[in-house]
Amino acid sequence: MADERLQFHEMGIDDRLLKAVADLGWSQPTLIQEKAIPLALEGKDLLARARTGSGKTAAYAVPVAQRILTSKQSVREQDVRALILVPTKELGRQVQAMMKQLTAYCSRDVRVADISGKADLSAQKPILMEKPDVVVGTPSRVLAHLNAQNLVLHSSLEMLVVDEADLLFSFGFEADLKNLLCHLPKIYQSFLMSATLSEDVQALKELLLHNPVILKLQGSQLPDSSQLQQYSINCEEEDKFLLIYTLLKLRLVQGKTLVFVGAVERCYRLKLFLEQFGIPACVLNSELPVQSRCHIITQFNQGFYDYIIAADEQSLADPSAAPQMSAVKGKKKKTTEGGGKAKDKEYGVSRGVDFQNVANVINFDFPTTVESYIHRVGRTARADNPGTALSFISHTELGLLSEVEEALIGDKADSVLKPYKFKMEEIEGFRYRCRDAMRSVTKQAVKEARLKEIKQELLNSEKLKTYFEDNPRDLQLLRHDKDLHPAVVKPHLKNIPEYLVPETLRDVVNPLVSRKRRRMKKEKSKPEGVVKTSFKRNMKGTNPLKSFKYSGGRGKKGKTVQS
Ligand code: AMP
């Protein structure tokens, strides 16, 4: 119960941190924060299994900041006191942002530097020379700086955090991590945060932690059905496009939505397809420069975009599928794919990254592992917010669905993924325009779009790096969801003739149509002679979907409606 939970102000935390927590609007700690913060403040090493979105960042960030503030009361010398290791650049940025928010009222005493993102070691050297109190970075980047002696930790380090430890392994950082430990002092306090307690994580625990307290807070890795609703629907390739078009165009899916696809090429195919219907979406994948990726996520979190189409590239997370996972010191960790484009192994969209207020996750392509399903779906229903996950399943993906269902069911009697009861036959009327749009999205168009976007984003990235540092307001003007246009756009596809919209959904889900209908009703109530005969009203009589039966609830913000 809320009032039984230990509150932030009862934990012995510095007032400046408490003030920042209040500014963040956090009325009480999450479960992991309630348990971890007091133990960490006692000086204990911690191993925490925390599901994504549980508030785990602050669970270690608050004690890290508190310990630095306490240390500084006796020792004034500036030194790096805490090191936070993360698996991806995106997560690095986020951790830094969270630390900065939490230390907003003591930013002079707790200085934080994120070195995960920038490409150039030499560009980061001056930052490290200033000895920030907290350094955030990926193991390979931190190790490179240690080897170059830009960073020296063996006498000053007081705290080490390994965040998303299981991902560090799956991203192939194991050797870097072990090498890095040789540069640390003998005694320091360690926190190991991980979504799963894999064998690798257990091994790391032996290496890093001394008499740790182990917190296994959640039995399940995803919130239960009162917070997160999970659905699946069987549909083959063409139907996937038909369904996503219908869901987005008719606004059956409302609120911010992440659409996951299985490959970079699919990102652009889907973006171009939606572009045909005037539905803007951002694309996110490992080929885009890191500045652009982070900017897209920031703007998405600020509410600039409704839809992100993200490629969740398994090969990047699976060392066996990606020979680029070199742990050789200082070696550049880039690989090349079919088109010769560089991919970034420190990219992780479904993992660790805090997309805020995501109402829906759509698996347009089903993930290839249970772990990936959990990470993707964990982007919604974060903190105490509700969320919906909907997976499109083709016959080739049925096996993967069973694996996920088996893993999630645990001791529950019912299947966790409920069937999404959408009657595909009732949107048959849209199939013709879908095919029309799909025909325009040729292989060549996709290839061109991919090249165009990367070129554009490289330009954007340069702007983000330099100009926008001095003009942060202008940052808002740079959008990432513009049309790419390599496919022929047929203007008539942007609008839906009313007769095509299933009758029973018209008022419920399509604000455009509803507006027109309301206007028509208004006109109808006007004195005779003012009302013009509406062509659309005449069309009603020939509506081929008149028999549509709607059995779902009314469309609500942030909800997925079923028919
Ligand atoms: P994390 O698991 O650290 O990625 O956090 C997930 C989300 O929960 C972030 O957007 C945090 O800002 C938010 N959050 C963290 N702690 C709290 C809290 N005590 N109350 C409300 N939201 C929180």
Automatic annotation (TrEMBL):
Pfam families per the UniProt record, alphabetical: DEAD, Helicase_C
Residue segments, region Disordered: 321-343, 516-563
Comp. bias (Basic residues): 554-563
Keyword rRNA processing appears in the UniProt entry: yes
Single GO molecular function: ATP binding
Record-annotated DEAD-box RNA helicase Q domain positions: 6-34
Top-rank taxon, per record: Eukaryota
SUPFAM superfamilies per the UniProt record, alphabetical: P-loop containing nucleoside triphosphate hydrolases
Residue ranges constituting the Helicase ATP-binding domain according to the UniProt record: 37-215
Locations listed in the record: Nucleus, Nucleolus
Catalytic activity: ATP + H2O = ADP + phosphate + H(+)
Example of a GO cellular component annotation carried by this entry: cytosol
PROSITE patterns found in the cross-reference section: HELICASE_ATP_BIND_1, HELICASE_CTER, Q_MOTIF
Chain location of the short sequence motif Q motif per the record: 6-34
Keyword rRNA processing included in the entry's annotation: yes
Keyword list, A-Z: ATP-binding, Helicase, Hydrolase, Nucleotide-binding, Nucleus, Ribosome biogenesis, RNA-binding, rRNA processing
A GO BP annotation: rRNA processing
Every Helicase C-terminal domain range: 227-428
UniProt similarity note: Belongs to the DEAD box helicase family. DDX56/DBP9 subfamily.
Quaternary context: May form homooligomeric complexes. Interacts with IRF3. Interacts with OCT4 and POU5F1.
Function: Nucleolar RNA helicase that plays a role in various biological processes including innate immunity, ribosome biogenesis or nucleolus organization. Plays an essential role in maintaining nucleolar integrity in planarian stem cells. Maintains embryonic stem cells proliferation by conventional regulation of ribosome assembly and interaction with OCT4 and POU5F1 complex. Regulates antiviral innate immunity by inhibiting the virus-triggered signaling nuclear translocation of IRF3. Mechanistically, acts by disrupting the interaction between IRF3 and importin IPO5.
Entries under PANTHER family matching the protein: ATP-DEPENDENT RNA HELICASE RHLE-RELATED, DEAD-BOX HELICASE 56
Protein known as: Probable ATP-dependent RNA helicase DDX56
Organism, as annotated: Scophthalmus maximus
